[in-house]
Structures are given as C-alpha cells and as structure tokens.
C-alpha cells in the first residue's frame, strides 16, 4: 500500500532542496537567469514542440547537474572541512561534469536558437 503522506513529505523535502539550490547557490542563479532568457528567446522565435522539448531537457539537465554538484561539494565539506587533495579532485570532477553539460546545452542552444534566428532573418529580408 502506498503511504501518500510519505510521498507528499518526500516531495516537500525535494521542493525545499530546489528552493535552497536557487536561493543559496550563485551558479544555480546564473543558470536560472540564462534559462529565463532562453525561454523568452524561444517564445520570440516560435520554437516547435520538438525544439522546446530539446531546450527544456537541456535546461533540466544543467539544473540537475548543478544540484548534484552542490550536494557533492556540501558532502565533501562536511566529511573533510580542511584542504585535502582527494576532496579537491572530487569537487573538480563534479564541477567539471556541470561544465560539460553546460557546454553541451550552449551548443544545442546555438544550433536550435541560432538556426531559428537565421531562418527568421532570411524570411524578413
């Protein structure tokens, strides 16, 4: 039997995690601002459903990667508050994963939004 109270409580905890991510993490705030600008641009350029799906998946992946990175960094800081070469390597790898996804998302954005912009400018000229 499903305990819906536990499910709702889990969603509440997860929601608090999302709020904390965007409230306290500077990089997440940057990703949020960029996502808002991309979404506005998408509306202006009249993206197709498929293009929207691809763009939104990219935004979600970057946010999820940022959340994992933040969790890993906080865990590292808790386990080893001082400087340690292994902790530094773990943090660098984690932030590198976010960078890989961010570069991929930017590339996808350029392909989709840039292509749409070129198409739009070609039609008006």
TrEMBL record:
It holds the Pfam family DAGK_prokar. It is an enzyme of class 2 (transferase). GO terms for molecular function: kinase activity. InterPro entries: DAGK (IPR000829), UDPK (IPR033717). The chain crosses the membrane at residues 30-47, 53-72, 93-118. Keywords: Kinase, Membrane, Transferase, Transmembrane, Transmembrane helix. It comes from the Bacteria. Gene3D superfamilies: Diacylglycerol kinase (DAGK) domain (1.10.3830.10). The keyword Transferase applies. Its EC number is 2.7.1.-. The keyword Cytoplasm does not apply. This is Diacylglycerol kinase family protein. The lineage of its organism: Bacteria, Pseudomonadati, Bacteroidota, Cytophagia, Cytophagales.
């Amino acid at each position: 039997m499903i305990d819906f109270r536990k499910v709702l409580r889990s969603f509440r905890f997860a929601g608090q995690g999302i709020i904390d991510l965007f409230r306290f993490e500077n990089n997440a705030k940057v990703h949020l601002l960029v996502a808002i600008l991309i979404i506005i641009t998408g509306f202006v350029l009249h993206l197709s459903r498929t293009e929207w799906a691809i763009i939104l998946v990219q935004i979600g992946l970057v946010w999820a990667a940022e959340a994992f990175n933040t969790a890993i960094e906080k865990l590292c800081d808790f386990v080893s508050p001082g400087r340690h070469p292994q902790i530094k390597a773990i943090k660098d790898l984690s932030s590198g994963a976010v960078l890989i996804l961010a570069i991929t998302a930017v590339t996808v954005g350029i392909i989709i939004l840039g292509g749409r912009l070129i198409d739009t400018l070609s039609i008006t000229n």
